[in-house]
Amino acid sequence: MREADLWRTLGRAEDALHAVLNSLSTPWVLAQLATIVLALALGHVLGGALERRLEDRVRAIHGRPRLLRFLAIVLRRTRWIVIAVLLGFGALALEALGNARHGAIVTLAFKLVAAWVVISIVSRLIRDRALARIVAWAAWIFVALRITGTFDTVRSSLDAFAFEAGSVRLSIWFMVQAVVIVGVLLWAAIVLGGIIERRVAQNPDLTPSLRVLIGKLVKIALLVLAGVVALNVLGIDFTALAFFGGALGLGIGFGLQKVVSNFVSGIIILLDKSIKPGDTIAIGETFGWVRSLRARFVSVITRDGREYLIPNEDFVTQRVENWSFTDTLVRIDVTFGVSYDSDPHEVRKLAVEATKGLNRVRDRPVPVCHLTGFGDSSLDFILRFWIADPQNGVTNIRGAALLACWDAFKAAGIQIPFPHRQLLVDKPLLVRVEEAPGDGG
């Protein structure tokens, strides 16, 4: 910014300040300021009382969460709504006593407060409270500058503070524009992408992995489109981004290669359909089912409720067991032994019949039981059956099968043996018997 422009701006600000100070001495200005102070005081008192009276009625609403949330947002702004109403009546009263100029300040205050009420309510559509506050304040400042007629002056002042970066002129006003435009477009792209992703996820004609792939591609396309539109709106030449593109490529090569690798691996997983939401998998020491596929990782839920976020790259470079890749059928093996007094043919029949009575055991393929060996103290068997829902657990169904066999064997008089141990002593042992203290004859 040139020095002459700076002094001219400061001179205009000084003249405006003197004009405001001189106007404060007039009776109508003092009356308007008193009206504003009175409206603020009464608004806080009356608004607080009205809010307390309406809160119980709002809380009594059930079964309509969206309406309840909207009324709660409006209720929290009862004080400002009452202040806006009082300022509106005050402006009308002052104009009725004199002319339009005699209520100009109160009218301006009414417009500012009313704008804040509307903007603060609308901004709460954004779930993130911190972001909602930033958007509300930014929008209100913009509207306030428009209402007071100082927007062009502020814009010129901000545009005057600038510096040259090669052939690009960067000013404070340009940066503010860039932040607002990029932020709005990216927010719109994220919201629209989320809506489309939810619609695609509800389509029963698509496979789970294809739903995730379409959702991710739509989000990426919308974000890229938002960036391109933002650059066009700001008037930035794409050739000016060549340096930043080279820097970004260098950064990816040195520090972001894992991030890019996981992102590309995620696309590969979705394209080859090796895993999809709902699959039961085992990778390393982690066994569970896939909850969701993300851009950087896969969320896997184990039976104990833990959620593991495993990088996509691991599913491409490591060995992965997918129990439901082609189908969901999984064979379960249960080993047990019975005493030598038992009839092995009857044991096999009882084990199969007991297993068929379990809810999760499939009829096809049929359960089978085989004699696998003659143990030291038992006849050893293996029971095999199939389930189609491994995500509901494997240990629990194996335990249920053992309990069913236990009940069937107990009813049939078949015993489960336990090993016997015989200790042989080849040399005499000296045993000393000592009397306990106090025992005497």
Describe this structure in words.
The protein is an alpha+beta fold and 441 residues long. It has four domains: 3-149, no CATH class; 169-262; 273-322, SH3 type barrels (Roll), CATH 2.30.30; 330-412, Alpha-Beta Plaits (2-Layer Sandwich). Helices cover 59% and strands 13% of the residues. It has 14 helices and ten strands. The strands form three sheets. A five-stranded antiparallel β-sheet has the order 6-5-4-3-7. Strand 3 and strand 4 form a beta hairpin. Helix 2 (27-59) packs antiparallel against helix 3 (65-75), helix 2 runs antiparallel to helix 4 and helix 13 crosses helix 14. The longest helix has 33 residues, at 27-59. The radius of gyration is 39 Å and the shape is elongated.
Strand order of the largest sheet: 6-5-4-3-7
Helical segment tally?
14
What string, H for helix and E for strand, traces the elements in order?
HHHHHHHEEHHHHEEEEHEEHEEH
**How many extended strands?**
10
Largest sheet: 5 strands, antiparallel
Strand content range: 5-15%
Q: How does the overall form come out from the CA principal axes?
A: elongated
